[in-house]
Amino acid sequence: MRIWSITPALLDAKGLVACWRETLLAQKVLQGKTRGYTQHPQLERFKASNDPLAYICAYLHGLADEADTRGYSFNRSLLVLPRDNKLEELEVTEGQLEYELAFLTHKVKGRSPDWFAQHFSTPPPALPHPLFKAVPGGIETWEKVKEGTSPSFTDK
Questions:
Q1: For the range 61-65, what are the long-range contacts, defined as Cβ-Cβ under 8 Å and sequence gap of 24 or more?
Q2: What is the pLDDT of residues 108-148, one digit of tens each?
């Protein structure tokens, strides 16, 4: 399961669709409707919030917004809660954003060369998903760091 902290605008088509599907699974986990993935580390930040289900739905709305800008049709009726514009942003560390950008850069280069050329030929800024705000710090403690991928990792 990969619930990206970085802006969905950087996700290639496969990444955006995979994130949508995996976050829908996360929604089921937070509803208690599945026994799998209940201890997945990427859910920690949602579970630590004052309303995990509202936050995961807000995250999904952010993905659907990006899909809309690309002309994709993500089925918002699968979301169990409407958008809540009163939620405070969740914090994510700058180190986490940099790590994810490096990881995504590596993945996109291999699977979506055209997307890579359009969006990664000049390194993009590590901007967060609209649900998150960046704060100083290293890679989040819940992250399972992939070998060979770090914030300084460049594979262009």
A1: 62/8, 62/129, 62/130, 62/131, 63/8, 63/16, 63/19, 63/20, 63/23, 64/20, 65/8, 65/130
A2: 999 999 999 999 999 999 999 999 999 999 999 999 887 76
Q: How would you class 82 by CB atoms within 10 Å of its CB: exposed for 0-12, middle for 13-18, buried for 19 or more?
A: exposed
Is 38 within 8 Å of 47 (Cβ atoms)? no
Q: Return the C-alpha torsion angle 41, 43, 45, 49, nearest 10.
A: -140
Residue type, 135: V
Phi, psi (rounded to 5 degrees) for 140: -60, 150
Smallest Cα–Cα separation from 96: which of 86, 88, 104? 104
Give domain limits for the chain. 8-135
pLDDT (tens digit per residue) in 47-88: 999 999 999 999 999 999 999 999 999 999 999 999 988 999
d(CA 25, CA 140): 22
